[in-house]
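Our consortium's second objective concerns turning raw sequence data into structural hypotheses that experimental partners can test. To show how far this objective has progressed, the report includes one record in full. It was chosen at random from the queue rather than selected for favorable results. The single chain below, 623 residues long, was entered without modification.
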Amino acid sequence: MLQIQTFDARAGGNVIYKALAHPLAAEAVERLYPTFEGPVALYDPEGLGDALMALYPTRLDCVLVHDVTLVGQPRAGRIAAPLTDLPASGARTVLVAAFDAARTAARIAHMVPPGARVVTLDAMRLPEAMLSNRGRYLDKLNFATNFAFFRDADGMSTRLVSANYWAGYGAGAVRLWLRLFADDGTVLATWEQALPEGPGGFSIDSRAVRSRFGLGPFTGQLFMHAIGVAGHDVVKYALDTYASDNGASLSCTHDANAWPSDRYAGLPAPRSDETVVLWLQNSHAVPIPAGAVALDRMGTEQPVTLDREVGPFATIALDVADFLPNLRWPEQIEVRAGRHVVRPRYEIARQDRVRIAHVNVERDNLRPDPGIPALPAAMGRGYLLPFPILSKARFRSIAQPTPMATTQRALPIRLDVFDRGGIKRGETFLGCLPRDRSIAIDLDAYDVEEGHAELVYDFRDGGEADGWLHGLFRYEDRQSGHAAETSFGAHIFNTAMTYRDEPQSYSGPPPGLSTRLFLKLGDERRRSFAALIYPASGPWHPRSSTALQLHDSTGRMIAEAPLTIACSGSAMVWPHKTFSAGLLLQAGADGYVLVRDATCRLFGYHGLMDDTGGFSLDHMFGF
């Protein structure tokens, strides 16, 4: 496993990781290391040495620390020695593993061997013009970054869609620094894109990128760095994958997590008539060693490793049948990625249709929470995982509970089913599901034409919970055979009382009792839609007070339509049915609908649908 701390909400490890792993930082190291004259001493005042050497290994002759309790401990591949050893070390290069390190370097200047050169991580700094906060380099807003799977090949194209939500938090001029990597990790193009001054929508289409830079077919990854931002340090987006040759394939995925994980889960095994391909994309400038990535049937602890190296920033396709040939849906696969990749995508091919979705982070730092089974009555049903039941006449809706933490050995789960009006139409206790138990629940078994269901904890037979309850949801068109799938995790919804950080809020502290959801617009071939759900852990407002706000590409609201949803109910939203053709034309291709509610927290899934049986679906994002 790559020895990096990718996320630490308290210590800001995520910021440090992003500062080290940025592609431009990698280029700076590539220029810097050849200038080192040995012996080389690393002084590690802030504990960054392990991550630095994991991402950019080089020969070190000694590693020095000033904390006496760390002397003799492993650090950056060597045994840490006391800083007082520096004068006699004979070092010709002293590397200080810290940013904004002028003071630190000055403090040890009298200890540096005569003639030695002192270098700090400030040599890896991004250009000042790329910083949102130039006064503090490790401010999280300086690293509002993310990756996207990006392809324009084999009749398939991708279109990334989002909005300048930073403008709503007081940002001025915001722009994106973009770098496109080919499948072998080479740089295909680097450019910048200015975003609208207000909270306007924007898009990046692979066909336009290919035309602009005169590129051939490519399948790789797009690195995005938002500059001049405020409020949010993650680039949120929706990514459509569509058949550019007017074929039948269509799918949508949510933004990637901005930091790598050791494991991912929620990868389905193929049906007998399907091929499942995992797209493995190296997020770093250091190769992924052979044997560092593996696939395993969930719960068996018998991983099958990838026996080849994956180059820096490279993209490869792994047919899961090559690793686990006897696995069949609804069995699930665990991806052991060793912190080398951000949330991977997977692609399922069936007949003439292809669909793409994402796996989720499998946590390794969770423990059962005894407070969840003992939640007071004020928290109602507690954690809920809502998902839509699409029109039964056309679609088959299927749910799969998914282990999403390494410590989850048995999941005590119940399924609650509601119609559109919020009337509970049934429930099924699924039991304490063992980690290696894979089930698929067909919602056809419930007499609901359209509505939603919720996975909830149920402790009637005991069991443990940690709040990280996840599921994989599949939808199949009964006529065309097209399918889509999405996955998400549970939250507490719409209670005045709070537990830990739930109900979560889009901004400010919990409880999160308001809604700001982004819904992209479609085009002449594909109409956008959203399945909005009003989940409630306990009693709340009988009906929502929702507004569908149509914005143009500058962020200006040009129309608004009211919507009410019953508590524990749901509604399908179609912009082309809600707003006139003239208003949608005025909104433009980069316009969008903001789903706004100040009275309750809605949850939603969005996608596109065409007239040939193609559709896409994934969970919405808010800001």
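The partners drew two points from this record. Helices lie at 13-21, 23-32, 49-55, 102-107, 206-213, 575-578, 581-587. The two ends are 33 Å apart (CA to CA). Both points have been shared with the crystallography group to help prioritize constructs.
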